[in-house]
Every structure is written in C-alpha cells, then in structure tokens.
Amino acid sequence: MSSLLSHNKDQPCIAKSLSDSSPASSTAATKSLRHERLLRLSSSGSSDVSNDTSTNHAESYFLRRENRLSARKKAAEETANNDYKKMYEKAVATNQRLKSRLETSKQELAMIQDQLQRAQKGRPGDCGSNMLEAEKKVKAELKMENQRLKDENGALIRVITKLSK
Questions:
Q1: Which end of the chain is more exposed for a tag (fewer CB within 10 A), N or C?
Q2: Structural domain boundaries in the chain
Q3: Rg, C-alpha atoms of the chain
Q4: Mean pLDDT within 82-108
C-alpha cells in the first residue's frame, strides 16, 4: 500500500504511522488516509490525471476488499451462531430423552418395590428367600441404572447451561 502512496512528499510519514498502528485501528487509519488523499487531490485540482486515476483505482480496490472481508466476517459469525444453536438444540433433545428414560425407570422401580412388598407379605419362610435374592439383584440393577441416568441428566444440564451463557 505504501508503494501506491509514495508519490507524495508527506506520504511516507503517513504510511509509516499506518504500519505502526494496531490492527484494531487500521480500518480507521485507512479511512482517514483515504480521506486525506481525496482532500489533497481535490485541492490540487486536476494537475495530474494519471495520479487521480491510479488513486481512484486503488481506492476502489480497497473498498471492494473491505466489503469482501466484512462479508466473510459476517458469514463466519452466522455460521458460528448456527453451530451453537444446533448444539444447544441437540443437547436439549438428548436431555428430554434422558428425562423420559429416568421417569420410566422410576416407574419400573416403584412397580418392582410394590411387587417386592406384596411378595414379602404373602411368602412365609425359606421358599421366599430365593425370590427375595433375585428381587434384590433386580432392585440393585435398577438403582444403578437410575443413578447412571441421573448423572447423565446432570451432565447435560451443565452443558446446556454453559451453551446458553
């Protein structure tokens, strides 16, 4: 960019200050630089037609470039937002699915506990002990499954919370 601007005497100072500036202020500096060039050209009149033409070409090039960069930046932001939205929706759907499985497990556990209580009341002595052992194993398995589902549900809730922030 400084090679395009080196035809003026006071231009190297401006070009140096532009290159020394931070990336965040480069857009403002570029616009200021363009504005100064346009003022200089308009005040000098049409003394050099080729100089005016090259400045217009350079100016239009930089404007097109800025437009392309801003369009890419907007597209990248929209893609990122859509990705977060998709991940959030997927996490919510998984959370709902796990909640329904947890409820189903709770209902099964309640039915088995009810059956166990009825079996304990109706069975005397040793013949019920074999059945009681099997029911204890089923109950333990259901409790483990229930706990695992609760843990998964908690993890998904944490993920959803982080995504929504």
A1: C
A2: 11-78, 79-164
A3: 37
A4: 91
